[in-house]
From TrEMBL:
Domain of life of the native organism: Bacteria
Primary location recorded for the protein, binned into one broad class: membrane
Residue ranges annotated for the GtrA/DPMS transmembrane domain, each copy included: 14-150
Transmembrane segments: 12-36, 56-75, 87-107, 127-144
InterPro entries named among the record's database cross-references: GtrA_DPMS_TM
Protein name stated in the entry: GtrA/DPMS transmembrane domain-containing protein
Tagged with keyword Transcription regulation: no
Species, as recorded: Chryseobacterium aquaeductus
An individual GO BP term: polysaccharide biosynthetic process
GO cellular component: membrane
Compartment(s): Membrane
Keywords in alphabetical order: Membrane, Transmembrane, Transmembrane helix
Membrane topology: Multi-pass membrane protein
Length: 152
């Protein structure tokens, strides 16, 4: 019973840490996708890739936030050294970033074409695509990080 409660607590903390990391990632994406196109005119469409720098920079902000929240609140240390654990975490995050960028491109190019009006805020197609990609990849992240990185 104690193990079940501990596991549920870990999932809850993972969701909270992921939610906070997603807020950092989405917020920084909003900032980057608003201001970077003013500096780099091709940021909105760089050879068919939409918002590449905004995605990479915001995802990096989210990854770093998630790493620190994960080691402080979510997972217990595994059998790996801190250095190796960090390298594994970044490796998994790099692959997750590529997967997330792929899904963002699919969502933005083919699925989400219109704004969604939430009365108090309107979500643009790029924000809806970013949020959807984050949600999809977060499930993969939890499984891999728990089994490979923090469980040893």
């Amino acid at each position: 019973m104690r193990e079940l409660l501990l596991r549920q607590k870990q999932v809850l903390f993972f969701i909270i840490a992921g939610g906070l990391s997603a807020i950092v990632e989405i917020g920084s994406f909003k900032i980057f996708s608003t201001y970077l196109p003013q500096i780099f005119s091709q940021e909105q469409n760089f050879h068919g890739i939409h918002f590449p720098l905004s995605n990479i920079l915001s995802t990096s902000c989210g990854i770093l936030t998630n790493y620190f929240l994960s080691i402080w609140f979510v997972f217990e240390r595994g059998k790996h050294s801190k250095k190796r654990e960090f390298v594994y975490f970044m490796g998994v995050s790099f692959v997750s970033t590529l997967v997330s960028l792929f899904f963002f491109q699919i969502f933005y190019s083919f699925i989400f074409k219109d704004n969604i009006d939430l009365i108090f805020y309107t979500l643009s197609p790029e924000m809806i695509s970013k949020i959807s990609a984050i949600l999809l990849v977060s499930i993969l992240n939890y499984s891999v990080k728990k089994k490979v990185i923090f469980n040893g």
